[in-house]
What does this fold into?
Amino acid sequence: MFEKILIANRGEIALRVIRACQELGVKTVAVYSDADAHAPHVREADEAVNVGPAPSSQSYLLGARLIEVALRTGAQAIHPGYGFLSERAWFARAVRDAGLVFIGPPAEAIEAMGSKTAARQLVIAAGVPVVPGTTESIRDAADAIEIAERFGFPVLLKAAAGGGGKGMRIVHAAADLPDALASAQREARNAFGDDAVYVEKYIDGPRHVEIQVLADMHGNVVHLGERECSVQRRHQKMIEEAPSVAVSPELRARMGATAVAAARAAGYVNAGTCEFLLDRDGQYYFLEMNTRIQVEHPVTELVMGLDLVQWQIRVAAGEVLPFAQRDFVPRGWAMECRITSEDPSNGFLPSTGRIEYLHLPTGPGVRWDGGIESGSEVGLHYDPMLAKLIVHAPTRALAIARMRRALRELTIDGIETSRGFHLRVMDHPEFQRGDITIQWLEQRLPELTKPAMPREAVQLAALAAALVAHEERTAGRGAPAVTATDPLPSASAHGNGPSWRDVARRESLRSS
Ligand code: ADP
It folds into this structure.
C-alpha cells in the first residue's frame, strides 16, 4: 500500500478520496487554489499545497505543477478524482513517467476510450452493440446529410471528443443539418480544442443505464451492476439510482458481460463505467466508457456493499481483486440527488454567495458526500455541484420516502440550491412509478420548477415581515410584543384607513 497520495482535485470528491485514504492508513496531500484556501479538503488532508490562482487553468489543471508537488511532498501516487485531469491521457502518462502511480486506468486505455469514434470502433470489434451511426467524423454538411438519410432522421450530432453533453445537437430534418453541424463543431472546438463531429441515430425515449466495472492488473474484471441515470437536464445527470426498475437479473448479467468485454478490449485497469442507452424493447446500445470514478459511484457502493474509491487505490497498488462475479447482487435500493448551487425556478441560473448556515440530514440510511460547510463561499470558478445526498433503503418506495425526509432535514441558507427541486421530483407520481426516460425531466421541467409562490407575493410577504419587525422595535415600544398567535391589530386601532398590517395580512392570505 502507498504511504502518501496526492489528490489532484477539490470539493466533495477530494474529501471523498481523503476519507478513503484515512481508512486505509494512507497519508494525503491536498492541493488548492487561492479561492479554496479555507476549503474543508485543505483542512482534512495531512498536508496542503497552494498551486495557484482561482481559475482552474492556473491551478487544478496544471498537471506538471501537481506532479512536481507530489514529488516534493513524497507522495507515491496521484488520485485525479473526476473532471479536471482525470481523463487526460497525457497527464496519466506524465505521472507514470515521473515514477508515480496514476490511480486510474493506463494512459493507453484513457486514449482508447477518449474519442467516442475510436471507442465505437474498438468496442464494435469486441462484439459490443453501439447506437447505429458512424465511426468516423463528418467531412462536411453534404456528407452529414447523406449519412443522416441512411440512418433516418432524427439524428444526433456528437463531438468525438465530447463530454458533459457539449457539442451535441439533435437534428430532425436535412434542412437543419448545416447550421446544427456548424454550431456543434464550434462548441466542440471551444470546449475540447477538437471540432470532429460524427452522427448517431437519435434513440427516442430510452433510459440511460450504465454499468460499473472494476479491473485489477492481473486480468480480473468484474462488473458491479447498473445505475439508472435517466433523470437528466441538458444531457447532465441530476438523480441516480441503483438498481434500475428496467433491469432484470438476466438483463443485468447480459449488460454486465458486455461492459466487461468493452473493458477488456481497452486493456482496462481500475474503476470505470460503460454507459448505455436502454430502449423500450430492452435493447441496449453502448454510448461511451468513462475512464474515472464517477459522481454517482456511491449508489453502487451502497447496494453492493464495498468502497469503490478504496478499491481504486488498492488496485493501483497492485492488489488482486478477491471477488467473483456472483458476489455482486444488489441489496436494497440507493438513490442520489446532486445538490447544486443553481436556481431551478430561474432557469437553473448559477447562484453565488456565502453559505450562511448549513444543517445536514442524518439518521438511518443517509449519506452526505459534500465539500461545503457553514461559511463556505460559492463562486463561479468551479462546477456548481456542491454535494450529493445519498440514501439507502430496502425498497425503491422506501428510498424515495427516505430521500424526501432527508431533503426536508437539509438546510442550506445563503444561496439558491436544487434542494426544493429534488423534493418535487420525489413527489412526482411518474418518478415514483419509475416511469422515466432521458426526456422525462425536460418534459416536466415547467411543473417541477414553477416557483411555489409568485415572486411578487414572496417580495410582499418579506416586506410585511420587515415592517412588523420594524414596528416592534420602534413604534411598538412599551406595547406588548406581537406574537405569531396574536391576531393582527385592526385598522381602527391605528387610526385612519387600513394599516399596512391589514394589507400584509390580506396579501399573505391571498398568496398562501
Ligand atoms: P457526454 O459524453 O457529452 O456526456 P454521452 O454520449 O454520454 O455524451 O451522452 C449524454 C446523454 O445524451 C445521454 O445520457 C443521453 O441522455 C443522451 N444521448 C446520447 N446519445 C444519444 C442518442 N443516440 N439518442 C438519444 N439520446 C442520446
Notes: The two ends are 60 Å apart (CA to CA). The pocket of adenosine-5'-diphosphate is lined by residues 131, 156, 162-166, 200-203, 208, 232, 235, 275, 277, 287-288, 438 (CB under 6 Å). Residues 4-103 form a domain with the Rossmann fold fold (CATH 3.40.50.20). The chain has a mean pLDDT of 93.
